[in-house]
Amino acid sequence: MVCRVLLLLLLPLLTSALMAEGPQHVLILHSFGRDYAPNGEVASIFRGELARQSPKAIEFVEASLEMARFDGAENEKPLLDFLRAVFEKQMPDLVVPVGGPAVMFCRRHRDTLFPTAPMLLLDAEKRRVEPLKNDPNTVSVGPDVDINALVGNIFEVLPNTRQIYVAQDGSPIGQFWTAVMKREWEAAFSHRVTFHWMNDQSLKQMQSTVRALPPDSVVLVGMMMRDAVGVPIVEETGLEAIHQASNAPVFSFNDVQMEHGTVGGRLVPQKRVAVEGAAVAAKLLSGVPASSLPWQSFPLEPPVYDARELKRWNIPESALPAGATVRFRQVGLWEAHRTSFLAFVGVIALQTVLIALLIAARKRASEMTANLTLAADSANIGLWTRTSGRNEMDGSATWRTIFGLPESGRVTFEEVLSRVHPEDKSNLRSVMELAARDGGAFSLEHRVVHPDGSVRWVSSHGRVHEFGNRQKLEIRGASRDITERRRATQEAQQRREELAHLSRVATLGALSGSLAHELNQPLGIILSNAQAARHLLSRDQPVEEEMRELREIIADIISEDRRAGDVIGRMRTLLRRGEVNLQPLEVNANLEEVVQLTRSDLIGRGVKVDLQLAEGLPRVMSDRVQFQQVLLNLITNAVDAMEASPPGERTITLVTCREGDEVRIDIRDMGPGLPEDPESLFKAFHTTKENGMGLGLSISRALVTAHGGKLWATPNEPKGATFHATFPVAKSVT
Q: Rounded CA gap, 482 and 225, in Å?
């Protein structure tokens, strides 16, 4: 009566749930109820696995054949009414009977309840599912139970067993299996063991029986849904009660019973049945037809044993069959905490090693610091640090000496800054502030004023180091007194300028004959014109025609005077001494000016000049005197190289062009070519001329390099050489 009331209350909810769109509906029919082992455990695993494997939401509707534990099919009517009402308007997407009784129920009523729904027969022994083998809309996943192997488990580890007490319940299904086991086991093992059947006893009576078993006895627990007096036995409470009372080892049938007191062995793989059944159910729900899926029947699992039971009954692991697995080992203190202990020891050892390494590293760092300080002091380099948040600076003794600071005591940043030359102070402060803001390194040269008034040049380099996400900054740097180096550099620059001047003087000296000819021409014309003018002026009254000639003579005198002045001006420019004056220069104009300067020498030596000057060239940044000196030296060398060439081949080709951010000048001759090592031409005092000093090309390369350019030579085919010079384009003028 109570069941019918509950069915009526739940019916509307279940019906509306099934009709709603969205989740797929799976009907699970229990043979004995959700709480009865072993089918209840199989159904629980199946539900979890299917929910995990299915891409769609699953709504499970579960019903139980509680009446199947009792005789008579008339008890099925309430369940039939319930199922008809629930699935009146919509069939379930999948029907899953769990266990033999549920399979038999579906076989009897499928055509009237859910004729079109696919059906998965789960955890039913193969003799129960065989009648449905030909149903195209049915598939089975279950165990293949070897009845005799269940007894064989006992003899594998306890070969001297003489008495087996079988605990089996008194339900109809239990009676069925008791009859099967009696028939099979009596035939197979009666010659070596006596079977005692306890299916007619209550659970308490079974406990009393197993408390006083004779030697060489074991207990074999089968199905335990209810005892002989009708008391329900849920889950594994029956197995656990017998295990607690028994004075002999307890064996069972199923792998789901392993944690409840059974010794173990080759067991029915019901966990595997549940997992594989969920995989098949997922395929059915995705639309795979049942007829395309194989029926699966899993044999007994490989032997597995409970270490606690082996120890309790003194069964050595050496007596176990090959390949056996032992679970639930009870480990000692060492085994239980070995990992933690080893980890603790490892941590202690690691800490010891780290401490030793840190001590060694600190010692090495101290030694390296001492060595670095010694090396820095030897090189007259002062080391210093400045930390953000502190106005003080720390530095070595050499650093204090370089900045003229006291040998000891506190030194502030402002005190250090006060030693910097007033013209360099703002630059030093801004460079350090920029480095602190943006990170990275900095480098600059500045002056330091000592207390005695002497001024020293200092080169300072530093790098910013960050700590704690830029919460703390430290600038580490080194400073070096470069006063003597700068003085030496200035002296070397002065010597180079003097040497370049001497080179220009020598070059002009070599051109003196040509330059004299350049001056003699305009001077001769001036003299002739002056004599003609004097002759005209000597007449008493010059006529108009004579006055016109006189004016033309004066114009010629002025023109030739300018021509002579230009020659003298170019010579004066090349002979000028002074500081380097970088300015944007017109490349073609300066090249033509140098050619004009050497024109007479070129004509006198029978050398033709082929100018191939590119138009629209950008200006280059250079010193005009040094720029023309390089061109003059290269042109003079080209003329000298063709001294022995036939007159018709004495041609110099001058080419200008732009290459990226540079302007290139090529001076090409038709001389004998280059030596095997062209670079030797640019070495100081290396000469191929009889009276040469070997300084022209060396000085020219130094001048070009100082202007940011390059000078090199390449051979021509079939003869001659080309000298290439590049100068960077002026940034402000293009």
A: 102
pLDDT bin (cut points 50, 70, 90) of residue 242 is: very high
Q: 604 and 513 in contact (C-beta within 8 Å)?
A: yes
Q: What is the pLDDT of residues 700-725, one digit of tens each?
A: 888 888 888 999 999 998 889 999 99
Q: Do the beta carbons of residue 62 and residue 28 sit within 8 Å?
A: yes
Instruction: Please give, one letter per residue, the 3-state secondary structure of 611-661.
Output: EEECCCCCCEEEEHHHHHHHHHHHHHHHHHHCCCCCHHHCEEEEEEEEECC
- Say if CB 53 and CB 61 are below 8 A apart: no
The topology (CATH level 3) of 379-478 is Beta-Lactamase (3.30.450)
Return phi, psi of residue 659, to 5°: -130, 95
CATH code given to domain 147-257: 3.40.50.2300
Which tens digit of pLDDT belongs to each residue from 244-268?
A: 999 999 999 888 888 888 999 889 8
Q: What sign does the CA torsion over 92, 93, 98, 103 have?
A: positive
Q: Is the pLDDT of residue 273 over 80?
A: yes
3-state secondary structure of 336: helix
407, two tokens = 């040998």
**If one looks up domain 580-734 in CATH, what number appears?**
3.30.565.10
Rounded to a whole number of angstroms, the distance between the first and last alpha carbons of the chain is 108
What burial letters (b/e) apply to 449-488, b meaning 16+ CB within 10 Å? beeeeeebbbbbebebeeeeeeeebebebbbbbbbeeeee
* Strand blocks (E) in 450-494: 455-467, 472-481
Of the options 3.30.70.20, 3.30.390.60, 3.40.50.2300, 3.50.50.60, the CATH number for the domain spanning 2-143: 3.40.50.2300
697 exposure class (CB count in 10 Å sphere: 0-12, 13-18, 19+): buried
Percent residues over pLDDT 90 in the chain: 26
Per the confidence metrics, is the pTM higher than 0.85? no
**675 has pLDDT over 60:** yes
**Averaged confidence pLDDT in the chain:** 80
Q: Enter the DSSP assignment of 171.
A: S
Indicate the SS3 state at residue 695: coil
Residue 689: alpha-carbon gap to chain centroid:
63
- As given in the structure block, the two tokens for residue 94 are 């999948």
CA angle 435, 439, 441 (to 5 degrees): 65
Is the fold of 147-257 the same as that of 580-734?
no
